[in-house]
Amino acid sequence: xxxxxxxxxxxxxxxxxxxxxxxxxxxxxxxxxxxxxxxxxxxxxxxxxxxxxxxxxxxxxxxxxxxxxxxxxxxxxxxxxxxxxxxxxxxxxxxxxxxxxxxxxxxxxxxxxxxxxxxxxxxxxxxxxxxxxxxxxxxxxxxxxxxxxxxxxxxxxxxxxxxxxxxxxxxxxxxxxxxxxxxxxxxxxxxxxxxxxxxxxxxxxxxxxxxxxxxxxxxxxxxxxxxxxxxxxxxxxxxxxxxxxxxxxxxxxxxxxxxxxxxxxxxxxxxxxxxxxxxxxxxxxxxxxxxxxxxxxxxxxxxxxxxxxxxxxxxxxxxxxxxxxxxxxxxxxxxxxxxxxxxxxxxxxxxxxxxxxxxxxxxxxxxxxxxxxxxxxxxxxxxxxxxxxxxxxxxxxxxxxxxxxxxxxxxxxxxxxxxxxxxxxxxxxxxxxxxxxxxxxxxxxx
Length: 446
Hints:
Elements: H1 5-30, H2 34-43, H3 45-55, H4 60-84, H5 89-111, H6 119-124, E1 134-137, E2 141-144, H7 145-163, H8 165-173, H9 175-180, H10 185-226, H11 230-258, H12 266-284, H13 290-320, H14 330-337, H15 341-353, E3 357-360, E4 363-366, H16 368-392, H17 400-406, H18 412-421, H19 439-443
Antiparallel strand pairs: 1-2, 3-4
Helix pairs in contact: 1-2, 1-7, 1-10, 1-11, 2-4, 2-5, 2-10, 3-4, 3-5, 4-5, 4-10, 7-10, 8-10, 10-11, 10-12, 11-12, 13-15, 13-16, 14-15, 16-17, 16-18
């Protein structure tokens, strides 16, 4: 792979467009308005057509103003239809951008059909041609025009987010709270939509609609999986955007060559890299990733199985007449629990390892420590049964299942509150003794 100054400028343009889109895209993700970026990127077409018809020029300034105006109009009409027509927000976006997109096509066909509109350029942009159109900056010399435009847009986006960070944060999570605190949520909304429109237009010519949509949504969505803090989310989204631009261009000029093909489009490959990064975050994020959730569910299943085993062995002791008078073999425990052999095996292994259960004559029985924990679980179960019958008027034969679930989230403090609310009962609704939980309970004769 040979790297030239052209490649550097392509990457710079890609980075600037990606971070500009990602910066404002975070708030679209937080507001659950991810499709607004898609809507605006499609709806700017009539603005481009009208700008050409009025000026008879494809100059960047005229096109930028026309597209930005229609982009803001898209946000206004979407909000208006959603508010007045009581239409779902996603449906109102679909109505507005399809109508405006169709209007733009009609205007181009009827009034601007002489304009060279390359579908490939619309979809993927022309980022490879960015280094060819330069302006002379006396400080930096010849710099691609698109880089100057995108750098200016990034500065504007950054200043807006910095100055209105608190207002954007509050209005994104709770518009009514923002209004209560004196923040005009509508002004923040339309200010953000104006920036989204302007950023989309600034990046559109260079990277095309596909990458604009991808960079508005994917970095923010991936970052939201990695953290729950807005400041960290913004930082992560910018880092992801930079990685998409750099790795996207490198992949575009190297990966196809491995398979005997020429280099491919950089903007398209940047969007592909964004998808790969998001997939990695969706699977491996420490809290919200699919892998971490699966591990958490597995650990929870083992913990619940452990507690069910303790409760089962305690009840067997009650039936047997005393401590150590009964027990169960592993197969009986697994069948009674209704879980798989792996979960049951791990549960028994952990109970044995922590000294709560020991194996005697081929049977598993409670130790002193295990008996104390099991007593608390059974006490919580029977107190919940009593509470559900006494305060929710459930039938006594309908409270075992809900009590079985609730016992796993009941600590000693909650047990005492349940006991107080139910009058410190001695027996549960089935007539079974409720184990003591405090000296006062023992004094009551339980």
